[in-house]
Amino acid sequence: MRALKLVLLILALVPVTWLSAPKPPRPRDPAIHLVDLMPSLQGSLPQMGALRLAGAWQIVGRHRRLGTLSGLAQTSSGFVAVGDRGNVLWFTRPDRPGPWLARFDRLIRLDWRKHRFPTDAEAVAVDPASGDLTVAYEDLPELEVYSHDLVRRRSIPLPVLAEWPDNQGPEAMARLADGRTLIVGETYSGWLDRTRHPGLIFRAAPQPYEEPARFELVMPPGYRPCELAQIPDGRLLVLGRHFGLTGFRSVIAAFTPQQVRPGAKVTPHVIAQIDDPRIRDNYEGMTVTREADGSQVVWLVSDSNEMVWAQRTLLLKLRIGPEAR
Q: Residue 40: in which H helix or E strand, if any?
C-alpha cells in the first residue's frame, strides 16, 4: 500500500501536459523532410571568407532525437550522420535530381540504460570498401565498429582515450589518404592555454590497445575542434565551434598532413567563418566531396541539442574557392 501511495504521489506531481503528450513516432518512421533555405537567402548570400554558400537546408522531423547530429560522413548512396542519443540518419544528397530520401535508425538495438551502452556519438568514419562505420563516443575509451547494416558490432579498446575528461573526449576523427587516422579531443592540453587540444596519430586504422603518437592542434581563441575532414587536394580541414552570449559561431581552418607528426604543434589557418545569424548554428559534423566539375565542396550539419525552439538541424553545402589555398 505504501508503494502504491508513493506511485500516486509521483503521478500527481508530474505535469498533466507530460501525461497527455502523444507518444513519439517509431524511430523508423519519423516523417523526415527537407526545407530549402536558399530562396530566402538569394537576395544577399552570407559572406564567409574563402567558402561560398551553394546550398542550405533545414532537416525537419517529428522525432526529437533527429536534432542531435554530431558526426557526418559519406556513404555509397549519400551521407550518414550519427547523434548524441545513439541515433543514425541516412540520407541522399539534396542537391541531386529526384526525391530526397532519408531514413532514421539506431546504432544499438537494445535498451542502453539497462546494458550501460554508450550513446553520445561525436564522430564517424565510413570504410569505402566495406561500408563499415567506425564511431567515436564522448565518454568511452574505445571505438565502436558497426557493419554497414548495423547488425554486427566490435570494439577497439583504446586506453589512451581514458586520459580525456568526461564530456570532453574524442570530438573529431579522420582517416587520411596516407593511411593514418587522426583523433582530436575537445579537452585542452593545458590548464592555462585555452587554445591547444590533444591529438592522436595512429599509423593506420586504430588497433586494440594501440599507443598512438601525439600532437597538439592549436585552435583560434574561443573555438574548440568538433570535426576533421580531408579535402581531395590533400589538405585537412578542422571545424571549430564557439558558443557565447550571442549564440554559436563556427570557423573552418586548414592545415597540411605534413604538419601532423609526433610532438608537433599544428596551427591551422582560418579560411572561413560562419557568423551570419541566418545560418549560424551548432555545426558539429563535416565531410568533403569532389564534384563532377572538379570543384571541392564542404558539407556541414548542425546539432540542435533537441532545442527546437532555439536551434535547428541545418545542412550546408559550401564550395571551396581558389582563395582558400
A: helix 38-41
